[in-house]
């Protein structure tokens, strides 16, 4: 299992992290998602078939793109 933290500049509140967590948990292979409002980040634990690219694409699709 892999775990990665993504910086999300437009996280402003708990609702933002809740939305991100809900959407990413629907990606097949995502095991755990934890948002951090103060750090403007989300940590995702995942395994196949989920990929970093699939997670980044989902974040972009829901208007919370990861910073490069």
UniProtKB/TrEMBL annotation:
A matching Pfam family: HMA
Cited PROSITE patterns: HMA_2 (PS50846)
A biological process term (GO) from this entry: copper ion transport
GO molecular function: copper ion binding
Domain (HMA): residue spans on this chain: 2-67
Coiled coil: none
Top-level lineage group: Bacteria
Name of the protein this chain belongs to: Heavy-metal-associated domain-containing protein
Organism: Desulfatitalea alkaliphila
